[in-house]
Amino acid sequence: MSENFDIEIPPAFEHLAMVRSVLSTALEAESVLKEERLQDLRLALSEAITNAIEAHNRSGTEATVRIRITVANTKVTVRVTDQGDGFDPSKLKKHPPVTDPERLEFERGLGVTLMRRLTDSCTITQTKKGTTVTLVVQR
Amino acid sequence: MSVLVIEPTFEVAEYGRWAVMRVTGEIDMATAPRLRQHVQTVTARKPAGLVLDLDRVDFIDSTGLGVMVGAAKRMRMIDGGFRIVCSQNHLIHLFEITRLNEVFDLYESLEEALTSVEGVTVDGAGNPDGVAT
After folding, report:
1. Residue B1 has pLDDT above 50, yes or no
2. Chain A residues touching B3 at Cβ < 8 A
3. CATH number for the segment(s) B11-113
4. What strands lie across the sheet with B18-27, from one edge to the other?
């Protein structure tokens, strides 16, 4: 048995905090996740939505970004679906080693790394209509 | 549905020739530009060092981390120090998984961050003496 929470937001960054708040409220009610894992998922979700909104902004679309939170017995799944121009994570520029002074030239590009490191599974699926990021955290 | 959105605040104080910025609230793509603007304003004054106090920050995303990387770079360009106060486990975890803990100097308290900073005194309660700007 599972329960879904669906949210649609305009492609604007000021909605990020609201979605994080909804996630916390949905998962805190029955202590679905331990606090540490909830914090991890909040951040991963925020990164996914940020990428989605940026994709919409690049495409010039005002279409909404869709978020579905699914709480199941064994895991929490979050899907973020956009209708933007998509992106290829394999083409992300690799950061220099942290010991390299050049590392300070890179202020962006940690979002996908964080999504992958903070969840048990992070899948990025592209279609002609846009991109879906699926984040899974085991309970 | 009503939700609570915590607006960040940025308070700056001077401790000797160092600047301390106390940040509160949530730093994400919506609010990071304001943090960046405040950092640029402070670093333009060319302090001997900058401390970012994140102890009252509830959330930071990769954009916020990026602003900190930019702040470290700016301070390095003027040969200034750059330190971060952070005692919250989930923020420390964030620095560790991005390995930025190896780039930044992290401290558990403002007092600890200002230890050995010239011109900074500590009062009887263990609090450093500063001037709000």
Report:
1. no
2. 17-18, 21-22, 25
3. 3.30.750.24
4. B105-107, B81-85, B49-60, B18-27, B9-15, B131-132
